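Quick one, T. Sequence first:
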Amino acid sequence: MHIIVIGAGISGMMSARELLLAGAQVTIIERQQAGRESSWAGGGIISPLYPWRYADAVNLLASNSQKAYPALAAQLAENTGIDPEYLNSGLLILAPDETRAAVSWAQQWQVDLQQLDRQQMHDIETTLKSPVEEGLWLPQVAQVRNPRFMKALHKELENLGANFILESPVTGFEHKGANISAVKTADRHYFADNVIVCSGAWAAEMLRDTMPQPKIEPVRGQMLLFKTKPGTVKRITLWDSHYTVPRKDGRVLFGSTIEHTGFIKETTREAAELLHQCAIDLYPRLVDYPIEHHWAGLRPSSPGGVPYIGRHTEYENLFINAGHYRNGVVLAPASAKLVADLVLGRETEIDPAPYGFDAVRD
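Structure tokens:
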């Protein structure tokens, strides 16, 4: 079976990996270089932000993916020589008003959640200047350094025999009855048994001539990277819509804005100033360290943050795996497994109904 995957972000490449390991032939078509959009731009946190705010459909994908990540990261490092820097940092959430909802969620999903007072938060993260008296601590939350993860994933797919067509935007499809007969780019047509759209924020644009269309829109997020000494920040911290992610080498990533600017991906001085002030408010020591990088990415938002995973209702051989919003990294392994099961006709471990085109999303 030959399958075309449109999009070489984490959703596309993880889907391709599942298919290749099952013995399929895979061609990946990408509008630019592999792994350079939101998969590269995010924080690499292997947990939804405020997971109790999400539907069970999101939490189920997250739970399955979290179980898969330790072995996945180890396999990628061994097979490619590129360390994705899987690191159990824990997640400290400063949201005391949401304690009841958080506790209920933790009980439902059997997650280790601890309620901390100010002194306990200080013991866990000594350089944090908390704006609240109480925090929620998720000690099992890990991270990957997503740019390194994407590089490792790209190399492994090449080793597995994936055919990459890069810097070649898809311009449309040819149809034959209830099937996609060809995927079109500017210079040629590509033929396959099945097609999976994994083009993130561009998924709705990709399917603009089909009905129904997924309700996926781009949402810009801007990020800062501080060049600090190791140990300056030790824990992933979440406050309001902003998060702090300490990397193994001491660098500290701080994000993120939520901007509805369409497909405009440019950075702005206003966002840089806002993020910098928020960062030093939480971690005053960061004022002594330079900002090494400032960038923006486009997240693929969807209603309720529930991704679209499954067969298109109009075409028998057209599938989608997109719309993960801020949770692309944490949802990727389970989402890829689900779409691969559907494409290959295997029994699914997860009920696909909540992720379908016609599913109700809040």
